[in-house]
Design brief:
Radius of gyration: 25 Å
CATH superfamily of the largest domain: L,D-transpeptidase catalytic domain-like
Structural class: alpha+beta
Strand order of the largest sheet: 2-16-17-18-19-15
Oligomer: single chain
CATH topology of the largest domain: L,D-transpeptidase catalytic domain-like
Distance between the termini: 65 Å
Helix content: 25-40%
Largest sheet: 6 strands, mixed
Length: 436
Amino acid sequence: MKLQWKTGILTGLVATASMAIYAAGFQQEESSTQRIIEAGQANPNLQKLMQQLDKRIAGNTEDYEAGLLKVLITFNKGMLDQAIAEVDALIKRAPDFHLAHLVKGDLLLARVGQVSDIGENPILQKLGREERERLQLLRDEAYARLRASLSRQLGNKVPLQLMNLAPSVDIAVLVEKGSNRLYIYEHDGDGRPPRLVRDYYVSTGKVRGDKVTSGDLKTPEGVYFVTAWIPDEKLPTKYGIGAFPVNYPNEYDMKLGKTGHGIWLHGVDNGFYSRPPLDSEGCVVLPNIDLQGLKKEIKPGVTPVVITEQASWVTPLEWQQYRESVLSALEKWRADWESMDVEAYLSHYDNDFWSNSHTLKSWAARKRLVAQGKTWQKVKLSDISLLAYPDKTGTDPMVVARFRQRYTSNNYQGDLSKRIYLRKQGSEWRILYEGG
């Protein structure tokens, strides 16, 4: 007989494919394991998951999450002594990994009896209310990590949010709040979807939903860019080894009247390996060991950070078709601008267009005036990134385009970095915002 938790929680969790969970209507805020178990019974592929974990560990010996998940599968397969040996080795390498200590306690108690769930045993049931609340936070972390491990089985699906990465963008960060996961993708050549490099467990805001006001304890959703690196010596200890601020509120956030500031990617207080899934004041929080690995790859002023409740996972063909529609709209705008047909150029702008100092009306008046002094002009766009905004019910699709623009004419020339927001209305993409 296999050793397992009494409710079958481990069997259900590690056997569950991510798509089956969502098909069953699973909502992450539920802490009950029963629906996870029911969704997972039809896909008991532990061997494939074990192979994936071995591959992760081989690629990164400091992937302690993979080590912990491997311990759980080893236990589920009935190899209790081996599971205890592996969790002992894991704790030796990561002594501040509190969840690993909790699992070790369960494994030791399994020698003499059963526990009803992760961390549910006769000894811990005697804890006081505050201690049991802390225990539940560790349990929530375990569930989040297990679910995310299974969501790696996405096949050939790619995130629509990362529609095109410019050659200058080595990596892009995608934060999926619903799965407490941060994905790292890298540029994989022009016309090809970005390639998944690795992903990490993260903590997000204490309150679910998109950030709207200062102090609402929510993590914002949108397209952002890393602006700086702040080392640990300039920060309180709760930020761990340092922080990467992002540009929240961005142009669109400010247009919507959103408030607040200080949204960062940062580490955890020394002495802790990680934090519970919902535990920040709005920031995205990584274990220090994971943030340390990202320090060399994230480039302030360059690296995009897309934050969404749930990413739009699509096939490469769907990704390509959507990407081409936006690139085509961008090229038509460029060509009409270069053609000297000012009315054709202005037709690409949304009725709600704004920039730092213009509405559509004042922008059109200025462009018509400038056009009177032109006899020729050339416009070249390069190093284009396209980042799709998170889907919102009742809102039109939107994409942020960031690129290098070189403009020359009979009386002016300029070379600058530009960012525009395009909104899709019907079948047409129109420019909602334009700025440097």
